[in-house]
Amino acid sequence: MKSLRPGDLAPEFALPDQTGCMRSLTALLEEGSVVLFFYPAALSAGCTKEACHFRDLRAELAAVGAQPVGISMDSVEAQARFDGKESLGMPLLSDADGAVATAYGVRRKYLTPVKRATFVIAPDRRITEVVQSEWSMDRHADAALKALGAPVAR
């Protein structure tokens, strides 16, 4: 399956976060836009850099009515360790069987379990931006902010 594109309807999901609380896309969107970022592995160097950049830009995202939500195939326990170590303070969802990654077209068979990809999802579940970059960890949050109409400070 190809990755979803701007204009596509984001697939609904319900997954546990790092505390075990079930989170659905519909419920997350009740608070505004969702910046859903898929990352290959909690606590790895690149994923830590990416997630920390989203953490550091939470206020800017909130100012434009959006919240970051991380998702990987790591267990709930691994997500909890990741959040605890890095003080991420955002939902980190456990897609242990990869069903959501498959639905979003980012599941892999080789290298890492998922592609590094970010989907900016409007409250009506329409995808407004897709960011794919395996090597530029800061690009995901910066491009999401730009897509949401926020200035990106450098």
Q: Which terms summarize this structure?
A:
alpha/beta; 7 strands; Glutaredoxin; 6 helices; five-stranded mixed sheet; two-stranded antiparallel sheet; 21% strand; EC 1.11.1.24; 154 residues
* Structural class based on helices, strands and sheet pairing: alpha/beta
CATH class: Alpha Beta
Portion in strands: 15-25%
- The percent range for helix content is 25-40%
Classified in CATH, the superfamily is Glutaredoxin
- CATH topology assignment: Glutaredoxin
The span between the termini is 36 Å
Number of helices: 6
Q: Main sheet: which strands, in order across?
A: 5-4-3-6-7
How many structurally independent domains? 1
Number of strands: 7
Shape: globular
Rg, Å, rounded:
14 Å
Sequence stretches where pLDDT stays below 50 over 5 or more residues: none
In the CATH classification, which architecture applies?
3-Layer(aba) Sandwich
Return the string of H and E elements: EEHEHHEHEHEEH
Biggest sheet statistics: 5 strands, mixed
Mean pLDDT: 89
